[in-house]
Amino acid sequence: MECPVCSSKDIKILKSKTISSKTNEINEFLLDCTCCNHVFKKSTTLEKPKPFRLIISENGNSKRTNINIYPDDELSSGDILISDLGKSEVRSLELKSGKRVKFSIAKNVNTIWASSIDIPSRIGVSINFKGITQAYKVDLDREFRISADDIVKIEDILFKVKVIKTLKKKMTRGSAKASVIKRVYGDPVNYKKYDFDLTDKIAIKKE
């Protein structure tokens, strides 16, 4: 909002009220420009929030619910939503045409696909024994960081992290949070020391 007299955006709200109809919400404001002291009225009209289908992934399982969103709101990948199923992060948006996109106005969206952020991140671990792979799924705190070249213990195996596959890319250097890691790849080593032990984080072991 800006002052109709001096165009300043330094506006103070003196009074406000909301008038609700079947389809819209009308917000009426009494405003004061702090630059020229002009007092004026302004109103905005919004469509009422509508229910949108929300599918939340939790470690391979999906839960469905609805979440109320204003139709003109912008939605994008990475947004955090709070529903009756807790906090989730938007991964993609399915339009009414069936196309999956990363950004859209809510009224064009049919389904919001998201992943829960109220539970630990489940990431894959693959250890290569000269052509034979031992694989695990481990549950880690979402802020836990793994770096390329970390020495990791899992059960009686020590391995060096070679590649970190995140939601967006593969990394051979640097580190990433568990919240964005899909899988880490490593080779066994004969070291005696290690950076951390994932044994008690094992959720699934694939023989």
Let me know the average pLDDT.
93
Q: Briefly note the structural class of the backbone.
A: mainly beta
Radius of gyration: 25 Å
Overall morphology: elongated
Largest sheet data: 8 strands, mixed
Q: How much helix, percentage-wise, in residues?
A: under 10%
Along the chain, the helix and strand elements come as EEEEEEEEEEEEEEEEEEEEE
Strand content: over 45%
The N- and C-terminal alpha carbons lie at a distance of 62 Å
List how many beta strands DSSP finds: 21
Characterization of the model:
By secondary structure, the protein is mostly beta strands. It has 3 domains: 11-47; 50-116, no CATH class; 121-206. Helix content is 0%, strand content 64%. Strands 12, 13, 15, 16, 17, 19, 20 and 21 form an 8-stranded mixed sheet that branches. Strands 4, 5, 7, 8, 9 and 11 form a 6-stranded mixed sheet that branches. A 3-stranded antiparallel sheet has the order 1-2-3, with no helix packed on it. Strand 15 and strand 16 (157-166) form a beta hairpin. The protein starts with 10 loop residues before the first strand and ends with a strand. The mean pLDDT is 93.
